[in-house]
Amino acid sequence: MFDNLSEKLDKALHVLKGHGQITEINVAETLKEVRRALLDADVNFKIAKDFTNRVKEKALGQDVLTTLQPGQLMVKIVKDELTELMGGDAEGIDLSGNPSIILMSGLQGSGKTTFSGKLANFLQSKKSKKPLLVACDVYRPAAIDQLHIVGEQIGVEVYSDRENNDPVAIAKAGIAHAKNLGCNVVIIDTAGRLAVDEQMMAEIANIHKAIQPQETLFVVDAMTGQDAVNTAKAFNDVLNFDGVILTKLDGDTRGGAAISIKSVVNKPIKFIGTGEKMEAIDVFHPSRMADRILG
Ligand code: GDP
Questions:
Q1: Which residues bind GTP per the record (predicted)?
Q2: Extended strands (E) in 171-214
């Protein structure tokens, strides 16, 4: 479909060069390939168009027309631009609080509970933190069970209260519990619905206001493509979240959602999920993602 865009670009421009001068038209043709690759990778149309316009300006400014290896230069320009668009260097998370409170948000099925476990495991094993997981889904008992299973798997305590149907009260009690246990990180897993709705947004906004987390993270399934952008925008409007977690990147998606989300909400992508296991978590690296999108 979009096998190795880098090679394609290189060939397209190189062959042309052998037959005479490369023109602006050739560059435009090549940029069409770039745009097609971005669309195939599920990048929003307007974002892909703006992107290729910027690349065109840079390419013409950098003498692509006269260089000996125009393809390679084009690939470099495209890659650098993609990397910059996705956020420069990988950003960490704020662990300065005592305890640091991390609020997870996102739709049901996005991978929130799984990621809460992965993050707790990562912070415990890589950052020597003592995390507590808090189950704030008051609608689905199975979600509470799932968090307990995850906690057992990684050896992290889980706070829940099945008798209580007020998520704000549970979150607060969870934080108090963490203080009693001497935990320095509290990860709060919240309820999600299958689509954005007012009640869910009001609920998470209330939790957010009541506990004032150091980090509010928005979890999104990379496979959901364009929908991911609308969901990200809806959550950001309400929570003004600090970062994005892109899950299910072990699937066959190119990860274009990373570009679209970053362009629309302008928040850093902090981690990616690459599988169902607790170890399948990676810090987000924009340049690696650029490679993946370019193929
Ligand atoms: P939640 O409803 O947002 O809490 O989502 P869950 O954590 O329950 O995840 C929904 C499904 O996606 C589960 O079957 C998870 O095992 C799966 N899942 C979560 N993260 C990943 C990931 O990075 N890769 C894959 N392949 N599956 C994932």
A1: 106-113, 189-193, 247-250
A2: 185-190
